[in-house]
Design brief:
This protein is an alpha/beta fold. The protein is 28% helix and 23% strand. It folds into 2 domains: 3-140, GTP Cyclohydrolase I, domain 2; 154-310, Acetylglutamate kinase-like (Carbamate kinase, 3-Layer(aba) Sandwich), CATH 3.40.1160.10. Helix 2 crosses helix 3 (99-111). The protein is elongated, with a radius of gyration of 23 Å.
């Protein structure tokens, strides 16, 4: 049994006691301790129109030990980020009168993750008295599932030949400003002669590594571009409005259903990722005029974008 602990915000002088584990417990648990936020909440008139400090403590017991921990694989675990995100999402849904309603909503969002078996939650007001007033609940799965709304990113595919163009990084950043975005680089696959005699899985890996090298080259053009290679990191980036540059190896290799077929090419992979993220299209910034045959085969569609329009 292992524990992930996340402590954020201000802390009170006295540490909060978390629930004890049964002696025979073996599964992991995620912990958010002493997370303090300024929140407008309360049923009384004097609580309206201004915020007060609310402290959150959450313990989520998982159904089984996370296999990803053994292999140091971020996509094989449930990240502890789901705990503060559940709080943020519930607060963003609207003003509440009751701490009990807030606690129930946060618990439901945590339990919406299939890996969670039980959640313990304590929510406290810190400014009403010299101590703390609050509510503590324990909820188990199954519970009414919360439909998670994942931000849909703008998707842009950029030809490798354009990376030397002056001002490209800043121009792309302006184009993608104001929301989450995913950039892909259309780099050529290694020549068939260079892969001759190699097994198919090896060819696939070498091709993906060539695409990853191009991703790092693009990310070097602009400080706001961040290379991401796992679905966990990509989902986090989307939620936080980041401009991501996709390094495709891990997500492609880990895919089970609807896995991309060989031979691999970045236009097809970009459309494949867009489909998984719910994007309606991929804007393709091309170094040469678009060939209709290149852009008609994939859904979502690849839509040509003239590099001159970025200036």
């Amino acid at each position: 049994m292992t524990e992930q602990t996340l402590g954020l915000g201000q802390k009170s002088a006295a540490p909060v006691d978390l629930p004890q584990r049964p002696r025979d417990a073996t599964a992991d648990r995620l912990i958010l301790r002493d997370h303090v936020l300024d929140v407008e909440i309360g049923a009384f008139q004097q609580e309206r129109g201004h915020t007060q400090r609310i402290r959150f403590n959450i313990v989520a017991d998982l159904k089984q030990t996370a296999p990803g921990a053994v292999h140091d694989d971020v996509d094989g675990i449930l990240s502890y980020d789901v705990l503060p995100e559940a709080v943020e999402d519930e607060l963003a849904a609207g003003r509440l009168n009751l701490m009990e309603t807030l606690a129930e909503g946060v618990a439901a969002r945590v339990l919406a993750h299939a890996q969670v078996a039980q959640v313990w939650l304590r929510v406290e007001k810190l400014d009403r008295l010299s101590g703390a007033l609050g509510v503590e609940i324990v909820r188990e799965a199954p519970l009414t599932q919360v439909v998670e709304e994942h931000p849909v990113p703008k998707m842009v595919l950029v030809d490798l030949a354009l990376l030397g163009q002056p001002g490209l990084g800043a121009a792309l950043a302006r184009l993608l400003d104001g929301g989450p975005a995913v950039l892909c680089v259309n780099a050529p696959a290694p020549a068939a002669a260079d892969l001759q005699g190699l097994a198919a899985p090896v060819k696939r890996r070498i091709t993906l590594l060539a695409f990853e090298q191009a991703a790092w080259r693009l990310a070097a053009l602009e400080s706001r571009f961040v290379v991401v290679d796992s679905r966990t990191e990509l989902d986090w980036a989307l939620r936080h409005g980041q401009i991501s540059v996709w390094a495709p190896s891990k997500i492609v290799v880990d895919a089970r259903e609807d896995a991309p077929r060989s031979p691999l090419g970045m236009p097809h992979l970009a459309a494949w990722l867009a489909r998984r993220l719910g994007a309606a299209q991929v804007s393709w910034v091309r170094a040469a005029p678009a060939d209709p045959a290149d852009i008609a085969a994939d859904l979502p569609p690849l839509v040509p974008l003239d590099p001159a329009s970025l200036a």
